[in-house]
Design goal:
2 domains; 3-stranded antiparallel beta sheet; mainly alpha; 73% helix; 10 helices; 284 residues
Length: 284
């Protein structure tokens, strides 16, 4: 009897692994179709962290009821259908990761077992929120134009600004929404979410990190726009295209991510040193 139960459990696990692998491939394919490399890499990072969180769990309750299983199957079938037929589902196209996660959790553990996957479902929920932010961006073009103008002025350029238009003696650019820095900020906030879930940090630091991420993203993008203005003034269209929409645009995202990682490393080091000092004082 025990051998039959063990074999049955193993069969369930294999089926769940196969379905989850298919859902991961489908969701990444949906993201890849949009041809946005940074968004694709962020989704991969989230899935890796979700896998690590699940791996740390000692035991999962893999018992699901009939209705919860049917609901899970319907959710999963929905994802398979929209992927296979490339159906445009409007705003629902923001929800496939979360729908996939909920469907798989229901199929595996039922309604009562959903609480086992709180962290994982929260991460998938943030992917949906991230997509919403990217769709309905806050307009910060004027602030970006002011910052870039200040950077150019302090570095010795003769620069003037009228609204979102930045003018140098030999060239002019306009700061549109795509250059406002929101994309970089959203990417950095995504990293912050992963840091919070992966590492044990103090409560107040969970509010400091997003603030620092926003500041880093905004400032780094300000330098990027300043570079665009200089390249236009120099008449270098090829370099402008590279740094504006080519691989060069990703370099600024990498620089911003590195700054955020260094800050987070410094914060973790400070916490570790503080814990050592507290332990030493307690021992004495």
């Amino acid at each position: 009897m025990q051998n039959m139960l063990f074999t049955s459990l193993k069969t369930v696990e294999l089926w769940l692994l196969g379905i989850s692998g298919s859902l991961i491939a489908i969701n990444l394919t949906i993201v890849a179709r949009k041809d946005e490399p940074t968004n694709f890499y962020v989704n991969v990072l989230f899935l890796v962290v979700i896998y690590l969180l699940l791996k740390e769990k000692n035991k999962l309750n893999l018992q699901s009821g009939l209705f919860s299983s049917l609901t899970g199957v319907l959710f999963i079938a929905f994802i398979f259908i929209i992927s296979l037929f490339k159906i445009n589902i409007g705003i629902l196209s923001l929800f496939p990761p979360l729908i996939s996660g909920v469907g798989l959790a229901l199929l595996a553990s039922g309604y009562r077992g959903l609480k086992q996957y709180n962290q994982e479902l929260l991460l998938l929920s943030f992917l949906t929120i991230r997509n919403l932010f990217r769709m309905f961006q806050i307009d910060t073009t004027l602030l970006t134009a002011k910052l870039s103008t200040a950077i150019l002025w302090y570095t010795g350029f003769k620069v003037t600004r009228s609204g979102i238009t930045i003018s140098l003696p030999t060239g002019t650019i306009e700061v549109y929404s795509g250059c406002s820095g929101i994309e970089i900020i959203i990417d950095l906030l995504s990293l912050v979410v992963l840091f919070i879930f992966m590492f044990d940090i103090k409560f107040h630091q969970k509010f400091i990190l997003p603030t620092v991420a926003i500041m880093i993203g905004f400032i780094v993008n300000g330098f990027r726009v300043s570079l665009m203005a200089i390249l236009v003034a120099q008449g270098d269209k090829q370099a402008f295209k590279y740094w504006h929409s080519g691989d060069g645009s990703l370099i600024f995202s990498m620089i911003a991510s590195l700054f955020l990682c260094f800050f987070f490393w410094f914060m973790l080091s400070s916490n570790e040193q503080e814990n050592k000092n507290n332990n030493t004082n307690y021992s004495n």
